[in-house]
Specification:
This protein has 627 residues and is an alpha+beta fold. Helix content is 37%, strand content 20%. 36% of the residues are buried. Bound molecules: adenosine-5'-diphosphate.
């Protein structure tokens, strides 16, 4: 019998497979089962048009492992192959033009090509030293056997096979140093591989299992019994129609698949046809996984191509800000053998990702509107991610995400920005916010006094990222954000402004003196427009607030502590301390300098900022008390 040579391309691919150091060799089984399933699909379609009487229920894939002979056999009753087809399909890499052999470096190429995806039939050579294919095409009288031990070529000869279909016999390699090939002959491994990769193949995957059973009529005599087991569950939950699936089933699937104790907050089950055809089943978890806000967390959805898993976590399907979503996408538009690099540039995949993003956002909006309690739970777990989504994109994702934002506010509880704006007073210019480490602290801030007095609502910013986020947003529907510590609060009318200006001018000399004495610590000492009863507070001018300074200085890195807010020490003109300062200024300027320092330190304390010299501060205070 003549040994035929593989085509050059096929030979190279084969070489790679045989010498593969790839760790996911196990995908060979998925590839062979998918081929079998395709062959049965083909026969099924043929039988529909030709009325052969064959139905889907006649079709199955059988698996047999023989430990002693070291063979793993996969048999299908699909369309089979003629001699020419065996020659053309297995002697050449069929249509797999997708494999562009372009790089020079074989080693990296190896990994890249096999990647997560495998390359069809030849992947059998990752685990087998010899592959035999016996096939009989449907409607043909003859059967043929194709055999190969790898790169040296293959043979084709006549064979005996009773019925149509294909049988693939793999002679499994011997165990090597670091490779355990034996396991591919064990029922346990085979079962788990099928559950992992081929659970949703539409045809039953059958394997005989030996069980011990009590011999009838005896009490302790056992006999062996062969039971045929179906290893796959066939219909994936997402392929069923929505009204066939109960919430329990949805949640059960989620808990099993993602090892989560808590039921998800909601699920999104969509089927889309058109520019991108896919089915998706996604879940919004109730809690963030423990590693969610760390670098270890990997976002992504499982990607299936017609029920066959091709990638466990496809990150490109989810934007970072929706990285908490778990689930899967099944699309007929994607080829099984697409490589990871190609997938990244796949137009279809991009369309799917865009469309998924919309579904997720709609689901969240719906939840926000219809089930506020649930949405607040969601926001507690993942709100930070939404805020980061806006901040990290420098506001580019603002339009997309701003409606999803919520903040606690002086109105009580969480509010959306839309709700805040709907409650704004006619003359109110800004969306006010105040920052602090806790709501109790924020509520006690002197800076909030005037704003509250006007009856304006204040957003409470307790997350570090909050202020950075709204700074990136600049405004919401035209309403600008304004910190209660900002230099211009826009609270006074013209007459009030005039009066403040006048008092400030009258006391300019003293304020300048205090500013000078405080030196680097402050940019200026000013008359406060926001205090009513409290004596002093610190505010800031410019982009960087005192709160932001705190966050930045707590961050690691050599620039930590470099960013400083331009601080203003504000003094309340209607507080007795102001009158005291004024009188001292005419009699004892040194005392005014001392007082300025103490007032400044007190304002720092109110802000929760560290003070440079607590001992000096306490001593000074005691000196005054003792006077
Ligand atoms: P692909 O499946 O991507 O086309 P493969 O290398 O896996 O590439 O298979 C090459 C071809 O061999 C298939 O397209 C199919 O025509 C044929 N083939 C493989 N396995 C079978 C089978 N079990 N039954 C019938 N034809 C098969």
């Amino acid at each position: 019998m003549r040994t035929k040579q593989f085509k050059a391309e096929s030979k190279r691919l084969l070489e790679m497979m045989i010498n593969s150091i790839y760790t996911h060799k196990e995908i060979f089984l998925r590839e062979l089962i998918s081929n079998a399933s395709d062959a049965m699909d083909k026969l099924y379609f043929k039988s529909m048009s030709e009325n052969t009487g064959i139905t889907r229920s006649d079709m199955a894939i059988r698996i047999e492992a023989d430990k002693d002979a070291r063979t793993l056999t996969i048999t299908d009753n699909g369309i089979g192959m003629t001699k020419e087809e065996l020659e053309n399909n297995l002697g050449t890499i069929a249509k797999s033009g997708s494999l562009a052999f372009k790089t020079e470096n074989e080693k990296t190429e190896d990994v890249n090509i096999i990647g997560q995806f495998g390359v069809g039939f030849y992947s059998a050579f990752m685990v087998a030293k010899k592959v035999t294919v016996i096939s009989k095409a449907y409607g043909s009288e003859e059967a043929f056997m194709w055999q190969s031990e790898g790169v040296d070529g293959y043979t084709i000869e006549e064979a005996n096979k009773a019925s149509y279909g294909t049988q693939i016999i793999l002679e499994i390699k011997d165990n090597a140093d670091e490779e355990n090939y034996d396991e591919f002959l064990t029922p346990f491994k085979i079962k788990s591989l099928i559950r992992k990769y081929s659970d949703y193949i539409r045809y039953p995957i059958l394997m005989d299992a030996e069980h011990e059973k009590l011999k009838e009529g005896t009490e302790n005599e056992y006999e062996k019994e062969i039971v045929t087991e179906t290893l796959n569950s066939m219909t994936p939950i997402w392929k069923k129609s929505k009204n066939e699936i109960t919430d329990e089933e949805y949640n059960g699937f989620y808990k099993d698949k993602y090892y989560d104790y808590d039921a998800p907050l909601s699920h999104i089950h969509t089927r889309t046809e058109g520019t991108a055809t896919y089915t998706a089943l996604m879940y919004i978890p109730a809690k963030a996984p423990y590693d969610y806000y760390s670098k270890n967390y990997e976002k992504g959805l499982t990607l299936y191509s017609s029920g066959v898993m091709i990638m466990e976590k496809c990150a490109d399907l989810l934007p970072d800000y929706f990285g908490f979503v778990r689930g899967l996408v099944d699309s007929e538009d994607l080829s099984l053998n697409i490589s990871r690099e190609m997938l990244q540039h796949d137009r279809q995949l991009k369309l799917i990702a865009k469309s998924l993003e919309k579904s997720i956002k709609n689901e969240l909006k719906k939840m926000q509107k219809n089930d506020r309690e649930k949405y607040e739970k969601f926001f507690d777990a993942f709100g930070m991610q939404i805020k980061y989504g806006i901040y990290e994109s420098f506001g580019a994702n603002k339009e997309n995400l701003q409606e999803l934002l919520m903040f606690k506010s002086s109105f009580g509880g969480y509010t959306t920005l839309e709700e805040y704006v709907s409650r704004m007073k006619d003359e109110q210019k800004y969306i006010y916010f105040a920052s602090g480490s806790s709501i109790a602290r924020i509520e006690a801030l002197p800076q909030t006094e005037m704003v509250k007095d006007k009856g304006y609502e204040i957003l409470y910013f307790t997350d570090h990222v909050d202020e950075f986020t709204v700074q990136m947003m600049h405004d919401f529907n035209g309403k600008e954000f304004r910190s209660v510590s900002a230099d211009d609060l826009g609270l006074e009318n013209d007459a009030e402004k005039e009066e403040i200006k006048k008092t400030e001018e009258d006391n300019k000399e003293m304020f300048d003196f205090m500013t000078e004495k405080l030196g680097e610590k402050v940019k200026a000492v000013k008359l406060s427009q926001r205090l009513k009863t409290h004596p002093v507070c610190i505010t800031s001018e410019g982009m960087l607030s005192v709160e932001m300074e705190k966050v930045l200085s707590a961050m690691p890195g050599e620039n930590a502590g470099m960013a400083k807010a331009q601080k203003i020490l504000e003094i309340n003109a209607s507080h007795p301390i102001f009158a005291k300062l004024k009188s001292l200024y005419t009699t004892d300027k040194d005392a005014v300098a001392e007082y300025a320092d103490i007032l400044y330190t007190q304002a720092l304390l109110i802000e929760g900022m560290p003070i440079e010299n607590p001992v000096e501060f306490t001593n000074k205070l005691c000196e005054i008390m003792a006077k």
